[in-house]
Amino acid sequence: MTAVVSLENLSVVFDGFKALDDVSVEIAAGESFGLVGESGSGKSTLLRAIAGLAPTSAGTIRVEGHTLEGARDKAFYRAVQMVFQDPYGSLHPRQTIDRQLAEPLAIHGFGDSERRILTALDEVGLGSGFRFRYPHQLSGGQRQRVAIARALILEPTILLLDEPTSALDASVQAEVLNLLEEVRRQRRLTFLMVSHDLGVVTHMCDRLAVMQGGRVVERLTSADLVAGRIAEDYTLNLMVASKGFRREAAPAPG
């Protein structure tokens, strides 16, 4: 496997608290890789470390063959984009959707912004009528579609997804997950997805790492998870706690 994202012995410490403790993960190009665990397990910190939003105290991060140190440059953000959990918090409340999509294009020197904005909105299932609205005029699902459009508009190869549907109603979650899966297939993107819901990860990801207390405690394929080939009690407890996974994996009544 040729790793497009590689973390080796990564540690992150905040005020003496070890949020990540000697974590190693490799993700292949075009793969969808999941990170699961309870709140505080370190999974979101891992995404933020890759994106340059959390300082690392030890270890190495490599993306597309480049070792990352210090502040990320424009080339990194062209290749790697992040979609956050709260679509309202990640969008500027006083800027139209048009301006929020135009800004990254201007920063990175893209031309043909008119066509790119319309194409981005269409790709995420929003028409041109949404272009000059403000975030407060959109539903939660529509706001998250805008956040996805903003991430995709720079044509990245890697998406970091931090609980991208957990703030949405259950009926909207499936729509957004299906959109992400369709986008990944069409664009051949690499996903690194954080979730506390094993059902979501089983649906979206090829492989996953289970995190507890800042460490990876188990590595599985989605097939292993569905078949119950689980070694750690912690993972079993996560499975029981995840209603979505129970619905997915429950045996048919006989």
SSE topology:
Elements: E1 3-14, E2 17-28, E3 32-36, H1 43-50, E4 58-63, E5 66-67, H2 74-79, E6 80-83, H3 87-90, H4 97-107, H5 113-123, H6 140-152, E7 158-162, H7 170-187, E8 190-195, H8 198-204, E9 207-212, E10 215-221, H9 222-227, H10 233-241, H11 243-249
Parallel strand pairs: 3-8, 3-9, 6-7, 7-8
Antiparallel strand pairs: 1-2, 1-4, 4-5, 9-10
Helix pairs in contact: 6-7, 8-11
- The CATH topology corresponds to Rossmann fold
CATH superfamily grouping: P-loop containing nucleotide triphosphate hydrolases
The 3D shape can be described as globular
Give the distance, in angstroms, between the N- and C-terminal Cα atoms. Answer: 41 Å
> What's the CATH class, please?
Alpha Beta
Number of individual domains: 1
What is the CA-atom radius of gyration, in angstroms? 18 Å
SSE order, one letter for each helix or strand: EEEHEEHEHHHHEHEHEEHHH
